[in-house]
């Protein structure tokens, strides 16, 4: 099964390029289509049932070395004409950007539907039963008072990229996921934690497993209390570690470097991290949900080593940032229907280290299992972070005390040189966006009692 | 935007399927944004979002669908699909629409559909950049933005409501980046409101640039922040994010109805220090978080949440009212047609008190003066919240000693509200974006400076 481009879309793209060419501009067009279903349960009943079906067109025009962007959610000829005219007008205000061109790709690209858009025989009724089972299963657990946030959902998205040069690219993917948070109470104590599962097919979801995981997370945190303020070794769990590396991925951005704000912009070839750190983007790993065959300019995606043996090797580039730095595009162009051309990673991967569990978990350390305030408490430009966290005080691999009401603070870029050891096994996070081993960071400031 | 005859046929169709209530939310949303990098226009982009959200209620169950299609058949098909598992005999009759034009308390002059004013906005941003870079050679970069939106909404429901509104949003700001060759630090300033580009009449680009750079330079020279529990004086304006996170979210019936708020059973109880009076007011003229009507078509209100420490009201939307029995407060809000409405904050603030900020600082033995705050978040079920200090100073023996690096403050709502011991006179508001179950919406936070006797400071000293 291969994705087909509808006649409607072909006609729309022809209209857009005809209008742009008549004005003396080259252009590309991104079309995003999405369908979704979302189900939530409360007190044994289906509480919310949401469906959607949307389409967004986004055009980029380049005329006289100036770039303009506009988008429309309406697909009629008049709206598309308005969109192109807006983009042309917007371009007149932009600074000259001689490096930004529509790439001369004339190929047709398609992702493999058999892998990324498999036929799902799961029905809406089955998913309703799943979300009811999820909520019911959680509140039936001892000391679980409610599951205020839960859901079973599916979404499918299609991405089309056309260009006036002749590019014709299409990809689509499907995912189903389930998630829940459980509010645990015992006397005056309470705790709320949650997690989720994400797969391609409904039948892969395991609601009983999710119920047990969520209940354990919340119940384990009921007796949480602060630890004394001091510096500890810290291991961020597989979810938190991915969030941290994602928030501070600006150091990998060729665009941020071109804009003069990437703190590693002049560090190519320099030691930026512990020599055991291997840090990659691997867009073609098919187990991940960040799989990409091509980027948003139509450039083929490929493995990119960012940090090898602790030395900074490459940044993420689109064609514009690549030209600026005199290198080849790395296939990291990123553009939504509403946005300008940027860069973005596909699937972050950290290479496994050599530390077996006994070494990784030796002695005393804090295992961080939940972080709050990442959007406000982390500054990618400076690297500084200070976050409210919860987790466990551990000794020799044993969780000896649940910990909450504490903060972890430091500078992420300096922390990459405070690696105690790297685990010898890699894990996907539950959203399957990154593959990493556990990393033990040494001497991190924890504020508590 | 939608032919009332189509709206009627869709809503009546939903009622014929047995729904208790049906509502159509139609939205046309123009956007325009300009980004600058140093003294160059980085990008100018614009667009129109258009869509329709259909909400159908069976008892306490909400069914919601949205689409870009405007024809009756597409909308009826969504209604039929959503209702297919709840079909029953009709329980409510359709009530003819009675169009209600609400008063506009937030007039705007330079609006997007008539004049995008790009030249003027670019001029403003480039002046702010020049002022920012003139402050010091250590200012290595600036990033400016101006975002303008015009959101037209129209609402029909099965109770005969037909109303609409046009909301004009404008927000502009600048971030300065200071560098000493090895480290970087940031500072920023922004302003906004529910009005048009005439906002520029009250903004000074030189102040914007200089203030952003001042903060960046302070942060570049900052020392590691001490950690542990200590007294903190929180500055006015965006400092109000403490109340937004520590209490505001916990008073939304979105959490209260599920008993997922620590305050769900505290109505009439003392939940804060008696010096605390708090309000959520959607009616303030041209304020960023204001609205004429909420996204369920109800005229918005001023809601006194806390009076002298006592809980006096929740923030209540239609479904929250159904589930809790409290009267609606005109607080049903959503980011766009893609979201069902939920009870949300508008302009939320702690009212002015009678203390002087100098007295607050001089009362501290060892602690922090957090003069500028960033965002935060809260876990409603437990009340655990966090918010970030973006400009702070170490205080010892009642005197400011030196600037400290950014740090997060954490506590729980019930604890911190009782730790507020002094409330200042210097009341101010500040605009921000608030993310929750019904998307990201404009909200205002505010307060005078206030003193919290003890809170955990997440420093790295």
Automatic annotation (TrEMBL), chain A:
Residue span, Metalloprotease TldD/E central domain: 123-222
InterPro entries: Metalloprtase-TldD/E_C, Metalloprtase-TldD/E_cen_dom, Metalloprtase-TldD/E_N, PmbA, TldD/PmbA_N, TldD/PmbA_sf
Domain Metalloprotease TldD/E N-terminal, residue spans: 27-91
Protein name in UniProt: TldD/PmbA family protein
GO molecular function annotation: metallopeptidase activity
Top-level taxonomic group: Bacteria
GO annotation, cellular component aspect: cytosol
A matching Pfam family: PmbA_TldD_1st
Single GO biological process annotation from the record: proteolysis
UniProtKB/TrEMBL annotation, chain B:
GO molecular function: metallopeptidase activity
Transmembrane segments: none
Gene3D superfamilies, alphabetized: PmbA/TldD superfamily (3.30.2290.10)
GO BP, sorted A to Z: proteolysis
UniProtKB keywords: Hydrolase, Metalloprotease, Protease
Domain Metalloprotease TldD/E central: 118-220
Pfam family, one: PmbA_TldD_1st
Domain Metalloprotease TldD/E C-terminal intervals: 227-459
GO CC terms, sorted: cytosol
Domain Metalloprotease TldD/E N-terminal intervals: 22-81
Family under the similarity heading: Belongs to the peptidase U62 family.
Protein name: Peptidase C69
Organism field: Leucothrix pacifica
């Amino acid at each position: 099964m291969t994705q087909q481009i509808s006649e409607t879309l072909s006609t729309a793209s022809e209209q857009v390029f005809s209008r742009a060419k008549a004005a003396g501009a080259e252009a590309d067009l991104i079309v995003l289509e999405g369908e979704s279903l979302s189900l939530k349960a409360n007190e044994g009943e289906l509480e919310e049932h949401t469906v959607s079906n949307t389409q967004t067109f986004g055009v980029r025009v380049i005329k006289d070395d100036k770039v303009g962007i506009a988008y429309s959610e309406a697909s009629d000829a008049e709206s598309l004409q308005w969109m192109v005219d807006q983009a042309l007008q917007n371009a007149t205000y932009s600074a000259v950007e001689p490096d930004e061109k529509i790439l001369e790709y004339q190929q047709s690209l398609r992702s493999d539907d058999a892998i990324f858009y498999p036929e799902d025989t799961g029905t809406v009724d089955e998913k309703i039963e799943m979300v009811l089972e999820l909520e019911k299963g959680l509140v039936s657990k001892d000391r679980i008072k409610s599951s205020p946030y839960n859901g079973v959902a599916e979404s499918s998205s299609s991405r089309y990229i056309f260009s006036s040069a002749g590019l014709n690219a299409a990809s689509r993917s499907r995912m189903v996921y389930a998630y829940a948070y459980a509010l645990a109470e015992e006397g005056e104590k309470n705790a709320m934690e949650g997690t989720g599962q994400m797969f391609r097919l409904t039948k892969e979801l395991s609601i009983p497993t999710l119920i047990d995981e969520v209940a354990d997370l919340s119940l384990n945190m009921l007796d949480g209390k602060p630890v004394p303020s001091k510096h500890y070794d810290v291991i961020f769990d597989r979810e938190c570690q991915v969030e941290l590396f994602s928030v501070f991925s600006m150091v990998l951005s060729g665009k941020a470097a071109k804009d003069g704000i990437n703190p590693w912009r002049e560090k190519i070839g320099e030691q930026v991290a512990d020599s055991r750190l291997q840090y990659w983007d691997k867009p073609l790993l098919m187990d991940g949900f960040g799989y990409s065959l091509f980027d948003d300019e139509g450039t083929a995606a490929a493995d990119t080593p960012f940090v090898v043996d602790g030395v900074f090797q490459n940044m993420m580039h689109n064609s514009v940032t690549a030209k600026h730095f005199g290198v080849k595009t790395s296939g990291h162009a990123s553009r939504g229907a509403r946005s300008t051309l940027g860069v973005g990673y596909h699937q972050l991967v950290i290479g496994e280290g050599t530390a077996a569990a006994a070494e990784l978990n030796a002695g005393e350390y804090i295992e961080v299992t939940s972080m709050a305030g990442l959007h406000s408490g982390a500054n990618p430009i400076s690297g500084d972070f200070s976050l409210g966290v919860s987790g466990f005080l551990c000794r020799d691999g044993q969780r000896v005390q649940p910990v909450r009401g504490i903060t972890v603070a430091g500078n992420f870029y300096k922390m990459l040189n405070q690696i105690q050891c790297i685990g010898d096994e890699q894990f996907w996070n539950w959203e399957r966006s990154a593959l990493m081993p556990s990393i033990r960071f040494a001497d991190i400031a924890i504020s508590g009692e | 935007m939608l032919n009332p005859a189509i709206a009627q046929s869709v809503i009546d169709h939903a009622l014929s399927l047995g729904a208790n209530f049906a509502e159509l939310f139609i939205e046309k949303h123009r956007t325009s944004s300009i980004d600058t990098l140093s003294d160059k226009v980085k990008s100018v982009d614009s667009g129109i979002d258009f869509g329709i959200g259909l909400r159908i209620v069976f008892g306490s169950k909400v069914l919601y669908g949205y689409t870009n299609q405007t024809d009756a058949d597409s909308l009826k098909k969504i209604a039929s699909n959503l209702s297919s598992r709840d079909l029953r005999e009709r329980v409510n009759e359709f009530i003819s629409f009675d169009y209600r034009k609400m008063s506009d308390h937030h007039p705007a002059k330079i609006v997007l559909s008539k004049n995008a004013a790009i030249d003027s906005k670019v001029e403003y941003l480039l002046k702010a950049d020049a002022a920012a870079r003139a402050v010091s050679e250590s200012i290595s970069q600036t990033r400016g933005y101006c975002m303008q939106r015009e959101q037209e909404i129209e609402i029909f429901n099965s109770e005969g409501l037909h109303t609409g509104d046009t909301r004009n949003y404008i927000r502009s700001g600048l971030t300065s980046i200071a560098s000493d060759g090895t480290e970087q630090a940031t500072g920023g300033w922004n302003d906004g409101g529910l009005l048009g580009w005439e906002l520029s009449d009250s903004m000074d680009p030189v102040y914007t640039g200089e203030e952003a750079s001042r903060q960046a330079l302070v942060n570049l020279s900052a020392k590691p922040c001490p950690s542990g529990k200590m007294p903190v004086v929180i500055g006015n304006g965006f400092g109000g994010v403490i109340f937004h996170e520590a209490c505001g979210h916990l008073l939304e019936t979105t959490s209260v109805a599920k008993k997922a708020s620590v305050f769900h059973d505290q109505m009439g109880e003392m939940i804060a220090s008696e010096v605390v009076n708090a309000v959520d007011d959607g009616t303030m003229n041209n304020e960023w978080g204001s609205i004429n009507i909420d996204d369920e078509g109800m005229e918005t209100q001023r809601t006194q949440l806390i009076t002298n420490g006592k809980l006096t009201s929740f923030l209540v939307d239609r479904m929250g009212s159904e589930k809790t029995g409290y009267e609606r407060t005109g607080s049903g809000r959503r980011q766009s047609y893609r979201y069902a409405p939920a009870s949300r904050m508008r302009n939320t603030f702690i009212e002015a008190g009678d203390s002087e900020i100098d007295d607050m600082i001089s009362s501290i033995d060892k602690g922090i003066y957090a003069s500028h705050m960033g965002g935060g978040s809260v876990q409603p079920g437990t009340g655990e919240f966090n918010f970030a200090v973006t400009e702070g100073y170490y205080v010892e023996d009642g005197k400011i000693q030196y600037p400290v690096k950014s740090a997060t403050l954490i506590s729980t709502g019930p604890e911190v509200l009782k730790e507020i011991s002094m409330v200042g006179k210097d009341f101010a508001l500040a605009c921000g974006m608030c993310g929750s179950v019904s998307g990201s919406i404009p909200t205002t936070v505010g307060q005078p400076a206030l003193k919290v006797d003890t809170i955990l400071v997440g420093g790295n000293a």
